[in-house]
Amino acid sequence: MTETRRLPGTVTEQWDWQLRAACRDYDDNLFFHPEHERGQARERRAQEAKEICARCPVQRNCLLHALNVDEPYGVWGGYTPHERRQLQGAVDEFAAL
C-alpha cells in the first residue's frame, strides 16, 4: 500500500507537471497491467509504455514522484515497479555511504 504520509502537500505547483505528461493522451491500462497479465504480453505492454515515457517532457518529474511516494504499481517515468525498487535500492545504498 502507498504511504500517503509521504505524499507532498496539495500545492498546485507540485502537480502542474502532470498536465504536460505524454501519458495523458493514452489509456491508463497501458501503464498499469491487468491482474492476470504475465510473460511476453506484460513485457510488450510495459515496453510500449516506456516508449511513451521516453519522449515525455516531464519523465524525470514523474520518476521522482514515483520514487518519493514509493509507488508500487504501474510504469512511472519509464520504470516498472521492479525497476524502481532496484533504483531506489541503489539510491538508498549511495545515501548510506
UniProtKB/TrEMBL annotation:
Superkingdom of source: Bacteria
InterPro entries per record: 4FE4S_WBL (IPR034768), Whib (IPR003482)
Keywords on record: 4Fe-4S, Cytoplasm, Disulfide bond, DNA-binding, Iron, Iron-sulfur, Metal-binding, Transcription, Transcription regulation
UniProt GO BP: cell redox homeostasis; negative regulation of DNA-templated transcription
Note on how the cofactor is bound: Binds 1 [4Fe-4S] cluster per subunit. Following nitrosylation of the [4Fe-4S] cluster binds 1 [4Fe-8(NO)] cluster per subunit.
Domain 4Fe-4S Wbl-type: 22-86
Pfam families found in the cross-reference section: Whib
Amino-acid positions noted as binding [4Fe-4S] cluster in the UniProt annotation, renumbered to this chain: 23, 53, 56, 62
Localization: Cytoplasm
Cofactor(s) required, per the database record: [4Fe-4S] cluster
UniProt GO MF annotations: 4 iron, 4 sulfur cluster binding; dinitrosyl-iron complex binding; DNA binding; metal ion binding; protein-disulfide reductase [NAD(P)H] activity
Description of post-translational modifications: Upon Fe-S cluster removal intramolecular disulfide bonds are formed. The Fe-S cluster can be nitrosylated by nitric oxide (NO).
GO cellular component: cytoplasm
Role description: Acts as a transcriptional regulator. Probably redox-responsive. The apo- but not holo-form probably binds DNA.
PANTHER family from the UniProt entry: TRANSCRIPTIONAL REGULATOR WHID, TRANSCRIPTIONAL REGULATOR WHID-RELATED
Family: Belongs to the WhiB family.
Name of the protein in its database record: Transcriptional regulator WhiB
Organism: Halosaccharopolyspora lacisalsi
Organismal lineage: Bacteria, Bacillati, Actinomycetota, Actinomycetes, Pseudonocardiales
